Amino acid sequence: MRRLWGIFLVSLKLGCTSFGGPTAHLGYFQNEYVQKRKWLSDNDFSQLVALSQFLPGPASSQVGMGIGLLRGGLFGSIVSFLGFTLPSVLLLMAFAYFSAHTGIDMGWIHGLKLVAVAIVAQAIFEMSKKLIPSIIHFLIALLALVVVLLWVHPLAQVTTIIVASFIGYYFLKKINQRDDPKETVVPISKKTGICFLTLFMILLVGLPIVSSLIQNEWFSIVEKFYLSGALVFGGGHVVLPLLEAQFVQSGLMSSSEFLAGYGMTQAVPGPLFTFASYIGMIIAGVPGAIIATISIFLPAFLLVVGAMPFWVALNRFAGLRGAMAGANAAVVGILAAAFIHPIVTQTIQNGLDIVIVAVFLWCLIRWKVQPYLLVLIGVCVGIVCY
């Protein structure tokens, strides 16, 4: 029990102080878990990071879950997730409540939306440098962009990712070869891993089917968030178009509410996936926020626990690495499509907006301004200019 409590307190500390997005989170983790506390070796940490990049889901949260698993078993993984996630969940729930009771169409909210435009643009720029290394990757991304823009349907993104995975499986094997890693000792059996992976697939396939038959509001919320969490490759920003398709296109919340919440998510520490807590709070109050948070992170937990016993085998299989590369290329195109519509089309209203977004983007790329500081600047700009 003392070890679990220690895992929770350390992860809670990181959840309160880890600003800057998934890449920055991994830097905090390496400093705290590897250098300071010696809970795992550099090799174990690097392999855990590689695994989180291989699997769909929030990379930094999965690394935290994996460290908790190595340190304290299944319960260690759970308390590590709770500590790292809780601060941002509470902050975004409070923001959703405040927004609902003060009105969403305020000047400072428009400032947040302009910040969101700049941050997504930077995310596309950074992701494309890493995930589009060849002409095949570029063509997959371009195809995904065109399909998602022309086929306006909640299943468009999911279908595109699946098709891109098959393309990558067959055409990107050689491009993604790398040396075999050293094996890491995992405190759970392969049989347990199979159980978790099986449960992941049962929920992935079964939830949409059951949701269409039951027609229950709460079950539908679980299904939408679980599906979004299960099919996000390439980082937390990629959850944006999936959630937009599930909740804005379906009319459950307005585009203004959605973009304001996404902008605010950049101001809080912790994982970007806690954006789901804001959405759940907007559409169904506190119970909705809790269910949304659990549902969107559940796939990541099931995959990390399920895949870790097969760590070496998964990493050696060139075909799976090719499939992941294809999916990663597709999500760049999907995020670019979401950037065009609805982010730009429903946020940029005049020339002043274009100038402000350009300045924000310059601050991010050139001056390396932290996103949470840019959010504060955006709020001030919104109050003054709108």
Give a brief outline of the structure:
By secondary structure, this protein is mainly α. The chain has one domain (95-385). The chain has 16 helices and no strands.
Please bin the fraction of helical residues.
over 70%
Q: How many separate domains make up the residues?
A: 1
Give the averaged pLDDT, no decimals.
85
Low-pLDDT runs of 5+ residues are none
Binned strand content = under 5%
Q: What is the N-to-C succession of helices and strands?
A: HHHHHHHHHHHHHHHH
Largest sheet: none
Find the count of extended strands (DSSP E, 2+ residues).
0
Rough outline: globular
Number of helices: 16
Q: What is the CA-CA span between the terminal residues?
A: 52 Å
What is the rounded Rg? 20 Å
If you had to describe this structure to a student in words, what would you say it looks like?
- The protein is 78% helix and 0% strand.
- The protein has helices at residues 2-17, 22-36, 42-54, 59-102, 107-131, 135-150, 156-171, 190-214, 217-230, 239-248, 255-265, 275-307, 311-316, 318-344, 351-365, 371-385.
- The mean pLDDT is 85.
- InterPro entries: Chr_Tranpt_l_chain (IPR014047), Chromate_transpt (IPR003370).
- This is Chromate efflux transporter.
- The chain crosses the membrane at residues 77-100, 106-124, 131-149, 155-172, 193-214, 226-247, 259-283, 289-313, 325-344, 350-367.
